[in-house]
Structure formats: C-alpha cells, structure tokens
UniProtKB/TrEMBL annotation, chain A:
This is Protein FixA. Keywords: Electron transport, Transport. The lineage of its organism: Bacteria, Pseudomonadati, Pseudomonadota, Alphaproteobacteria, Hyphomicrobiales. Residues 22-219 form the Electron transfer flavoprotein alpha/beta-subunit N-terminal domain. InterPro entries: ET-Flavoprotein_bsu_CS (IPR000049), ETF_a/b_N (IPR014730), ETF_b (IPR012255), ETF_beta_N (IPR033948), Rossmann-like_a/b/a_fold (IPR014729). It comes from Oharaeibacter diazotrophicus. SMART domains: ETF.
Length: 283, 352
C-alpha cells in the first residue's frame, strides 16, 4: 500500500506578534511548523501502513526551507519525502497549488508507486481555505472524503475503504473505492513521537527535490501568480466603529464598578433589562 | 491585472446561492446568503437564483418556496434519486453541469462542511477562483465581486477578486451575514434541471447516517447573551468566573482561541474566524485583546462590552462599552450585581 500525505509548512501562529502601531504581523524570528491539521492525516496514514504494510510519502510545495518540515515528518516515521520547489510557484492560490501538487503526485506515482490513498489536512492555519484537498482530488479524478473522523476499514485486496465522515447534523458512514483522497478531522488521533531510528534516519535522509519541470509540469503559466484566478487587490486595517467605545468610569471597588457597567449597558439598550430578566427567570 | 473579460465569459450573468438542503432541512446560512445575494443582484441589476438539489419530493419544493420568501427571483430545481443524502460526486457533477448550462456570474455557498467540500471541487473543475470564508461581499464600480476576508496573523483584512474567470465563487460562514426578512406569499419561477447522473456510476455509497444528539451541542451560535474569556484571565481556574457570570445571566459562555489551544476550554466554545460566529444582543469579552480573527466572529453583536486592563487594546476600536479594569476582580461582582438587579426571586424578596 502506498500512501501520499500532503503537508504544508506554516508559521507557528502561537508565536506571531502583531505590531502594536502598524497592525502588521511581525514575521521575523517566527518559527515554522508543520501545519497542525496535517499531523492528524499523517498519523492516520502511518497507522494504515503499520497495519497493512507499504510506504508513506510526504510531499510539500514550498520554499527550500520547507525541507525542515519534511524532515520532521520523517522523524514521525514517514518513509520518503518530496519537496516541490520553484520560483514559478510563488503567489499560488488554491487552484494553482492543487494543480502543482496533483502533478507532483502523478510524478510520485510514476517514480515510485501509484498511491492508494492521498491524504491532506482538513485546512491550514495560515490560508485556512480547506480548498486544496478537494482541488487535488478533482484534478486527479479521485473520490474525495473530507472531515473524516474514523477510518473504519481498508481492504486493499478488494480496493475498498469505509470511513465515518462528520457531516452537517450527524455522522455519515461511507464506503468507496480506492484510490481516493482523505482529509482527517482534528483531534481524532495523536501524532506518534517516532523512534530513535526514525530520528537518525530523518537526519540523514535524502529529500527528493523537484523543480516544476522535474515534477512534469510543462505549462508553468498554470502555476504561481499567473495560474491563480484569484487576485488579492487590497490589504487594509478594519475601520473602527463610527462610535468610539464609551468608557465606564472606574472607582476601583468591583461592586460599584459592576453596577456602573450594568447602568451603562441598560442606558444604551433599555430592552436588555427585560431580556436579561426573561433569560434569568427561564434559566 | 484587470483585463477585458474573455468573450466566452460575457454570457455569465446573475447571482446564484446554493441552498443547502439536507434531510428535509435547509441550513440557515443559505437564507443569510439569499439576503446578501439579493443586495448584490440589485446592485448589478440582475436576477437572484437559488439552487435547490435533492431527491424528488424530499423537501425540495418547500425549500424553493422558502427561497422565494427570502428574496430569490427564481430557483433551479435539481432533483434526482442520487441526490438524497449529500455525497460529493453527484452533487459536484450536478452543480458543475448546472453552472455550465445556465452560467452565473457569482456563485455563493455556505462555508459549512457540505459547502466547503462542494465548493472546492466545483471551483477546481470550472478552473475558477474561490474565496473562502468571506466576511463582506460587495460589487465594485466595474461590477466585479469584491470578496473580503481576514488575513493571517495581523489585524488586517484583504479584498480578493476573480477578475478574468467566471463564475466568481465565494463561501461565507454561518451567521456572518444577517438573516433577511421573510415575506410570506412572495413567489418566483421554478426552472427544473435534470442532471446526468446514474447511481451505478457513483463510487461512494452511504451505508448509514447517525444524527447528532441535539442535547450534546451548545447554543453558543444562537444565544442572546454571551460571556467570553481570554488569555487575560490568566488561568484555567479563573475561567470559572466566566462560567459563573454566564450562569447568572442565563447566557452562553465562550473563549478566544488560545484558551482552546491550552486545553482550558473545549473547541466548541471558541469564538472567531476558526471557531463560532455569534450575533448576540449582548457580548461581554473579558481579558480578550480583540485580534481580527476574534473580531470577525463577534462583529454582528448588537452591544459589545470589553473588560480589559489595557485602554489601548484593539478591542477598544470595536467595543461599544469598555471598562478598564481587572476582569478577575470585576467578574464575580458583576455576577452578583446581575442577580441582584434582574433575578425575579431577588426582586420578590425586595418587594416582599
Ligand atoms: C490570508 C490568506 C488568504 C487566502 N485566501 C485565499 C482564498 O480565499 N482563495 C484562494 O484560492 N487562495 C487563498 N489564499 C492562498 C492560499 O493560502 C494558497 O493557495 C496556499 O498555497 C494553499 O491554501 P491554504 O493554505 O488555504 O490550504 P488549505 O486548502 O486550507 O489546505 C488543505 C490541505 O492541503 C494541503 N496543502 C495546502 N497547501 C499545500 C502545500 N503548499 N504543499 C503541500 N500540501 C499543501 C495540506 O494537506 C493542507 O492541510 C490565501 C492565502 C492567505 C495567506
Ligand atoms: C489563522 C488564525 C485563526 C485564528 N482564529 C481565531 C479564532 O477563531 N478566535 C480567536 O479568538 N482567535 C483566533 N486566532 C488567534 C488570534 O490571532 C489571537 O491570538 C487571539 O484571539 C488572542 O487571544 P486573547 O485575546 O485571549 O489573548 P491576548 O491577545 O493575549 O489578549 C489578552 C488580553 O487580556 C488583557 N488582560 C490581561 N490581564 C487582564 C486582566 N487581569 N483583566 C482584564 N484584561 C486583562 C490584555 O490587556 C490583553 O488585551 C487565530 C489566529 C490565526 C493565525
């Protein structure tokens, strides 16, 4: 069984600071991490490989520094890592990103072994669109199974996969044919720590690195900015509300301040007094 | 950048909203989008269509009638046996074919699990742009769709266009847009569309569906009063103060994202871009700085109260009322004051 897992290197949002005056993000010194959502998919892939045999290949499209995230995935136990890197990819939106990744996955299939399952994360913590997984599935003509909370059964001989999917208002149990694309829900498993052997292997492992041409992309106009139908035209700070926040005077005595705050709330919206009385009575 | 729109896209006209019908029930985000789509269509001087898909008779006509009541001019009615429960393959194929046949210039979907799954597939097949999780939609002077969404990290928004491709697609999360007024008796045209689908050609089969127990879900998204805590509360124990105040007010409680990341609150209590969007009458934010990702989740609240030690915190730019003080000391006093003033029992006591 061959499983490909798409991972993205993202800035660690927990360490991002916003410049207090200019409102812009201060990226300097912010460490990069593997997109946290991708680790649930990687863990599921590793479990399937442990159970059914085969190999897990991780792939990312990103700058040369993204090898760090690929190596991290090898320390968890992935077998092989592929970096797709080229200046033609700069500025890709989700359509261009899924195009490049689908080409790379086809090439991985040709160079190593065609994948039975392609995993992607549910979404990223930076772009946060959840569009790349479905995009890759469409381009490769694979069935897409998003928001999966459990892989119930995988029968490689019969070529079938059964999963539980989080839907609006309930859980679907779905059966489909391999190959397919799966995105896992967050919190459904926990990434393993990996063994010492994995860590040693990861440190030395050769990362397969492909340019656009090496990945089999002939038409680079479908990549990067040129291949992206969406155009970011304007970045701006949200306007403050016309009315500035009215500040409640503080005395330093909490009981008095609480009363002053409630007075101000009711003065602004008298109906809230009735609403609160009703809510409290019904509680 | 802005080029002349390619000739073959010029026939693309009108605004469409995908009406998310599942198990006889329409997701409210669809009506919110009908309200928003109505404004865009009026500005463009075009028609607003709802797209209703489902198995024949499974609430499709009712959904169409509702779409008219909320403001649609017409409904594309796509009925087929394979469209009973949501599955990506038949839905994506039917919607893609419908777009190819009737050519909308704008296509809006809810950013739900269904909408995101469907929109990503359809936009890729159509090779057009899709802007995710928009918080504002507008049309420019040159009639292109300006879709605004928060950007990563900073307190900034960005406006994204799909200039040279059609349709221009966008998703919007539930409760970001206001619910439009429903007018009984409004009608419109029903345009049937027969999709080219066959069960035997669909690879994915639904084995079972297990509905959520409703009691397991909290009512945060629909509560009239919400109290939330942020990192300013400094410890998991102090979050009890938020819960207690919410309890005293008959309100729901919530939190900012870092508290979920620290494991201090469950994920379904997170408010903001990657959590829940709320539209309460009263929102009290204690020890929350008001980052853009939090703000977009609460902008629809009628009255926002900030309790913060920092008079210059970003939340001061969008709160209606602010009190610059230590939330850890104020919250218990506030719970007491609320009970004293608004609880019927205490009023009885005073009266008696
Ligand atoms: C603030 C901001 C807003 C944006 N808004 C939009 C928008 O509305 N529409 C749009 O089309 N583009 C948008 N983009 C561009 C988009 O982020 C990029 O196309 C990006 O390359 C992938 O999208 P994503 O991060 O949203 O991934 P998602 O679609 O959320 O990612 C889902 C999964 O796909 C896989 N994946 C994603 N990227 C890669 C990669 N480079 N390598 C390997 N696997 C990957 C991962 O498994 C990931 O978990 C935006 C970018 C930013 C920074
Ligand atoms: C892609 C992405 C998505 C995100 N999605 C969300 C989301 O959905 N929801 C969300 O909330 N965040 C989200 N965030 C995180 C967001 O950017 C902020 O980091 C977060 O909202 C900050 O949380 P906070 O206000 O609790 O903490 P902080 O920013 O640390 O603010 C703490 C505040 O408490 C005040 N304070 C300190 N002590 C006291 C005291 N004793 N009494 C009163 N006030 C005090 C401080 O002055 C400060 O203003 C997201 C970030 C990213 C990158």
């Amino acid at each position: 069984m061959h499983i490909v897992v798409c991972i993205k290197q993202v800035p660690d949002s927990a360490q991002i600071r916003v410049h207090p005056v200019t409102n812009t993000i201060m990226r300097q010194g912010v460490p990069s991490i593997v997109n946290p959502y991708d680790l649930f998919s990687l863990e599921e892939a590793l479990r399937l490989r442990d159970r059914l045999g085969g190999a897990v290949t991780v792939v990312t499209m990103g700058p040369p520094s993204a090898v760090e995230s690929l190596r991290k995935c090898l320390t968890y136990g992935a077998d092989r890592a592929v970096l797709l890197t080229d200046r033609f990819f700069a500025g890709s939106d989700t359509l261009a990103t899924s195009y490049a990744l689908s080409k790379a996955i086809e090439k991985i299939g040709a160079a190593f072994c065609a994948p039975d399952i392609v995993f992607a994360g549910k979404q990223t913590i930076d772009g946060d669109t959840a569009q790349v997984g479905p995009g890759i599935a469409r381009r490769l003509g694979l069935v897409q199974l998003t928001y999966i909370q459990k892989v119930v059964a995988c029968d490689t001989a019969a070529g079938t996969l059964t999963v539980e999917r989080r839907a609006e208002g309930g859980t679907q149990t779905l059966a489909t044919r391999l190959p397919c694309l799966v995105t896992m829900l967050e919190g459904v498993n926990e990434i393993r720590r990996g063994t010492i052997q994995d860590a040693l292997r990861a440190a030395r492992a050769e990362i397969v690195t492909w340019s656009a041409a090496e990945a089999g992309i002939e038409d680079v106009t479908r990549c990067g900015l040129r291949g992206s139908p969406t155009v970011v035209k304007r970045v701006f700070a949200p306007p403050p509300r016309a009315e500035k926040a009215a500040t409640v005077d503080v005395s330093g005595r909490p009981a008095a301040d609480a009363d002053a705050l409630l007075d101000a709330v009711v003065a602004r919206r008298p109906a809230l007094a009735t609403d609160l009385a009703t809510l409290i009575a019904g509680y | 950048m802005k080029k002349e729109l390619p000739e073959h896209f010029k026939a693309y006209r009108h605004v469409w909203v995908f009406v998310e019908l599942e198990r006889g029930h329409v997701h409210p985000v669809s009506w919110e989008l009908i309200g928003e789509g109505r404004k865009l269509a009026d500005k463009l001087g075009v028609e607003l269509a709802g797209v209703v898909m489902g198995a024949p008779g499974a609430g499709t006509l009712e959904a169409a009638a509702e779409a008219f009541a909320y403001g649609a001019d017409l409904v594309y009615l796509v009925e087929h046996e394979t469209l009973g429960d949501y599955r990506n393959e038949p839905y994506a194929k039917a919607l893609t074919d419908l777009v190819g046949t009737h050519k909308p210039e704008i296509l809006l979907l809810g950013a739900t699990t269904l909408g995101r799954d469907l929109a990503g597939a359809v936009a890729t097949t159509l090779a057009t742009g899709l802007t995710a999780d928009c918080t504002e939609l507008a049309v420019d002077a040159d009639k292109s769709l300006a879709a605004t969404r928060p950007t990563f990290g900073g307190s900034l928004l960005c406006t994204i266009y799909t200039l040279n491709f059609r349709p221009q697609m966008a998703t919007v999360r539930p409760r970001v847009m206001a619910m439009p007024e429903r007018r009984e008796g409004r009608t419109g045209r029903v345009v049937p569309f027969t999709p080219d689908l066959e069960e035997s050609a669909i690879l994915t089969k639904l084995l079972s569906f297990m509905p959520d127990r409703t009691s397991a879900k909290n009512n945060l998204a629909h509560a009239d009063v919400v109290v939330a805590g942020g990192l300013g509360l400094q410890s998991a124990e102090n979050l009890q103060l938020v819960r207690r105040l919410a309890g005293a007010m008959g309100a729901e409680f919530g939190c900012s994202r870092p508290l979920v990341q620290k494991g201090w609150m469950p994920a379904d209590r997170q408010i903001g871009q990657t959590g829940k969007t709320i539209r309460p009458k009263l929102y009290i934010a204690a020890g929350i700085s008001g980052a853009i990702q939090h703000r977009v989740g609460v902008d629809g609240a009628d009255t926002i109260v900030a309790i913060n030690t920092d008079a210059n915190a970003p939340i001061m730019a969008f709160a209606h009322l602010a009190i610059v003080t230590d939330a850890i000391r104020l919250l218990p006093a506030l719970a007491e004051a609320v009970t004293r003033r608004f609880s019927p029992h205490s009023r009885d006591r005073i009266a008696g």
